[in-house]
Amino acid sequence: MKKMNQWFLAAALTALLFAGCEKDEQKPIQILDHTRSELTVRLQENSGLVHRVYRDTTIELSTGVSETHVHFMDVNGHSLRVFILEADLNQPAVKLYPLTPFGEDAYARQAIPEMVGYAESEGRVLFASNADFFDATTGEPRGIVYKSGVPVRTTMQPGWTFFGVRKSGEPLIGNDVDYERENANIYHALGGNQTLVKNGEPVIHTDNTIEPRTAVGYTADNRVYFMVVDGRKYDYSYGINFTDLGQLMHALGVTESINLDGGGSSTFLVNDPEEAAYIVRNRTSDGAPRAVANGWAIIAE
Fold it and tell me: How far is CA 248 from each of CA 46, 76, 77, 226, rounded to the nearest angstrom?
């Protein structure tokens, strides 16, 4: 009888310990609606899309450059993971730099984590993302390419767009008509497609397809924002359409914004200060960073 009691006691303690371990492994999602980062507050208060914030994290990569990762439920009940890079171009050491495969002007394809290695001679790479749409066979981008004032590709499709930097250092977004007027002033530029925010107002789109997306935009005071929204994984991140992507960018305060290549191309890479290594923050829908035609980097000189 004594041995039986001891057996029951041991079994009870084991069950209690297992239950405690299981509880630790299945921690509930933390709700951060009342302890949010500045950018998360802007998204929640200004976009009309955020129902509940689960998690957010902001990390300073360098003076004037920070990344924010937000996980929220949208107003339609979908889980969304949003990655935001904020770069203050008023900081003298902070620069935009166009990435091309192997650092060359020839058309090709290369994944962003490999592409950044060829930009390290320009300074410390803090961040990188994919940029223009491209021909999957040849790697030729769809839009213009300017590197340090040198035109590499000067053809634009009607209605398509570009993002770049003027020779004066100011960010620039335009379409094919703007390009004809501004081409002599362009220092860096890469192509894009759909306009998301124009003259401070979000643009409404009739194409409501849901996909992973990459966007770029800037404010009136020269702060540049890159955004990647993961998708194609319903329980992790649903994806987003063009109109809602524009709403998110507008909520950050941008006056101009365009859509870059998305889907499996969407890549959000940072130079993690804790890991001292390049890390792709988002979960690319291909399972690994796709080889793309070009990209953008934020560099600290």
Answer: 8, 15, 16, 11
Number of Cα atoms under 13 Å in the Cβ half of residue 154: 10
Reported as half-sphere exposure (CB side, CA atoms, 13 A), residue 197 has a value of: 26
Contact 132, 141 (CB under 8 A): yes
Low-confidence ranges of the chain (pLDDT < 70): 1-35
How confident is the model at residue 71, as a pLDDT? 97
- The answer to whether 68 and 58 are in contact (CB under 8 A) is yes
Q: At what angle do helices 242-252 and 38-46 cross, to 10 degrees?
A: 130
Q: Which residue has the tokens 């984590």?
A: 113
Dump pLDDT digits (tens) for 269-281. Answer: 999 998 889 999 9
Q: How many Cβ atoms from other residues are within 10 Å of residue 297's Cβ?
A: 25
CA distance 94 to 72: 30
pLDDT at 16: 37
> The pTM is what?
0.89
Contacts of 169-172 with CB under 8 Å at 24 or more apart are 169/89, 170/89, 170/222, 171/89, 171/96, 171/218, 171/222, 171/224
